[in-house]
Design goal:
It is built from six helices and 34 strands. By secondary structure, it is mainly beta. The strands form nine sheets. Strands 3-2-4-5-9-20-11-12-14-15 form a ten-stranded antiparallel β-sheet, with helices on one face. Strands 1, 8, 10, 17, 18, 19 and 21 form a seven-stranded antiparallel β-sheet that branches. Strands 22, 23, 26, 27 and 34 form a five-stranded mixed β-sheet that branches. Strand 30 and strand 31 form a beta hairpin. It binds alpha-L-arabinofuranose (AHR). Alpha-L-arabinofuranose (AHR) binds next to loops.
Amino acid sequence: QGPCDIYASGGTPCVAAHSTTRALYGSYNGALYQVKRASDGTTKDIGLLSTGGYADAAAQDSFCAGTSCVITVIYDQSGNGNNLTQALKGYWSGPAAGGNDNLANAVEAPVTVGGHEAYGVYIAPGTGYRNNNTKGIATGDQPEGMYAVLDGSHYNGGCCFDYGNAETSSTDTGNGHMEAIYFGNSTGWGYGSGKGPWVMADLENGLFSGVNRGLNSGDPSVSNRFQTAIVKGTANLWSIRAGNAQSGGLSTYYSGARPNVSGYNPMHKEGAIILGIGGDNSNSSAGTFYEGVMTSGYPSDATENAVQANITAVGYSSAATGTGSLTPGSRVSLQATTACCTSDYIRHDDADSKVVISPITSASSAVDKADASWIVRAGLADTSCLSFESANNPGQFLRHSNFELYLNTDNGGSSFAQDATFCPTSGHSGQGFSFQSVNYPTKYLRHYNYTVYIAANGGSNSWDSSTSWAADTSWLVDQPWS
Ligand code: AHR
């Protein structure tokens, strides 16, 4: 059984069902999404490992090997054809050609579902998906429900990381013309208690945390790595509900009347579907989407509670799937091999974003051990190479800037992806591995004076020194310290 089977039993069937990680019906056996690769511009549908099962991410990995891929289509599993594709220029322009929005990098949001590798939809600012010509989605004041499973650690305050019902014109047509889930820490309209992020409803010209704009303290900040977010609405009644997508039930943060401002009662829903943007194609927000649906009819709390139980049973996890090897998903520590430094490991510094080598032993603190542990990821710019995500700072990757290594948050941009992608080769000294920068192929990860750089064998920077270059660029891939 999938979430949409549960909604159907509750009398509020899915009219759109989107996921890059799994089937949302027990009987679904079609494609989940489509990717396009940079090398030759060809596309491929990514399907399931089995009927009603999980995404065949390995098919994506092999199609995208040696190049990079973007997600071009997120298919609607409901049979209504409500697919999501690149959001085109609206009132606001996006950064892509023609003022359209960017498409998401297909490997930027790795995840484990039911023990299987999968990828979410990583929305960096400027990225967005939309369908302005839908079938079966609520219009006017018709009742509907929706949920989404999101990365609760990836958000910002920009407008508006939404999933749900919006204008068919990609412009702001007035109060009540949207009804979508919002996730982030925008305080421009409404907000909840604490510092955010909050699950709110985007009803157009306002992110609502409760009955009216401003503070509604019943809507708490949430901090789950995997967040279930729910918005539903019917005649003069709407609700915000949410929970931890890994365990436990849902809480109701608001359920009551429509905002007491003209335009919201009755609503004027238009029935387009947006992901990662606002109704007018505002596109400065960030977030990550794994799955979500929209229903016809106002689902009961009991139906949603059963959907939440289905979600928690999936076992969404960001944990590594192995240890000690350079396979994506594995957790490793990277040990220096130069005679000076064989007790030293690549680690990030807590005080700043610098990346250094320092000794780690079994007596080191838990924080030091975690700072020296990395999750191997498919290369953000080339999936036949690798990226290294911090074990204790999710979403932050080893990247070079001015040839020095830093730990920075992935901003989704293609420069960041290049700066964070390294191709493993056998170690220059004959020991272990060397890691070649994908955008500066003469340069490899190197320690010099206990700082980590990308360095060529002889060059203009001090760290390009040929002395011990081969040893300084050779690393052992070890079991992770944490
Ligand atoms: O309601 C918040 C935002 O305001 C909407 O998403 C957008 O259409 C408008 O700019």
